[in-house]
Amino acid sequence: MPTTDHTTVRGPGSERRARADYTGGVYGSMLAASVVIGAGTLGSFPRLELVVLLLLTGVAFWIAHVHAQLFGARLAQQPLDHHIVFHACREEWPIVKAAVPPAVAVAVSPLLGLDVQGALWLALSVAVAGQVAWSVAAARHAHATWRLVAVTASVNLLLGLLIISFKVFLKH
After folding, report:
1. What is the pTM of this model?
2. What is the C-alpha to C-alpha distance for residues 14 and 76, in angstroms, rounded to an integer?
């Protein structure tokens, strides 16, 4: 059952709930970066199409994660009711939240004088920054040492740079 502080759940899977918000955010940020790369390698997407693609991909993966949680591990552990469904939806929502900043970056890119390629790079940078920020938030929430916070930020930055290298590689 969910608690009112939204940080833990009693019973099976409680450890997962404590990390879920951040895990989904890191995952969603990496997903958004991948969408930007995929869109950029296929040609010039109009900005509105890329914004919609980012948001709908986040929603589609959110639904997939909720479904997997409800009908995978949850069904075997407890009967399904509306509280459990609501909890699973809330727990996986950071996947969608992580798609919003890159989508906003694409939407405001004309105000910054960026062409479509510039918008793609901006969105990719925002997604990677989000990935690092979610990982730092997770480490801080877990009361990690500053050294461990730096390690997780560095690892996620390296993962983000790896994703960026895919864009560079696919473009040439």
Report:
1. 0.79
2. 15
